[in-house]
Design brief:
The chain is mainly alpha-helical and 193 residues long. 64% of the residues lie in helices and 0% in strands.
């Protein structure tokens, strides 16, 4: 017996996988870095998990769902950076309605999207901070590799953080060494005797 919902679910999966081939466009202005929307979304999910755990009161599942699908519309609209958005308009709400149409969990996706867009719940604020912190981690990495513009971007990205947890994490990232976790500078790792 064939499940009549499967073709629509498969269409949705192909659409979501399009994010693996959708480039984030802001890095062109920075002159360094490259990333697709799916890579960004993975980072946002890891950060959303971290922020929700740091907070201790947030609904972890809800925070993760908001993070996971926050850029789903970009499979249809593409990623517009801050400069593009000054001149081009995109209808992300329509893109999300079209993406959710006919899905058994479509109403749930639209509910999550509305919560993300409103940005008022604790979970939406944590997911929004995760969105910014993903870029902040990359900017810090690029800054340590010599990108002078990355520091300017960090200054403005910090201003978009909404939660205490996001601010605390920013402080540690801004002063952190992206290689510290793996480059321990121990002779026994790097010099064979």
């Amino acid at each position: 017996m064939s499940d009549p919902a499967l073709p629509r679910l498969v269409d949705f999966l192909f659409e979501a996988m399009m994010l693996k081939r959708t480039p984030r466009t802001g890095y062109a202005f920075l002159g360094h870095g490259r990333e697709n929307v799916a890579e960004h979304s993975f980072g946002v999910c890891v950060l959303a998990f971290t922020l929700a755990r740091m907070n201790g009161r947030a609904d972890l599942s809800r925070t993760l769902k908001l993070a996971l699908f926050h850029d789903l519309a970009e499979a249809r609209t593409g990623d517009l950076n801050y400069m593009n958005k000054r001149y081009a308009t995109m209808d992300e709400d329509r893109a999300m309605r079209d993406a959710a149409e006919g899905l058994p969990f479509g109403p749930e996706l639209l509910e999550d999207w509305a919560e993300w867009r409103a940005g008022q719940s604790l979970e939406a604020k944590l997911a929004a901070d995760a969105d910014q912190l993903d870029m902040i981690l990359e900017l810090r990495r690029l800054e340590t590799l010599g990108s002078g513009q990355a520091a300017d971007w960090l200054f403005y990205a910090r201003k978009r953080l909404k939660t205490e947890e996001g601010q605390r994490l920013f402080e540690e990232i801004a002063g952190g060494d992206p290689t510290r976790w793996w480059f321990e500078k121990k002779d026994e790792y790097w010099v064979k005797k």
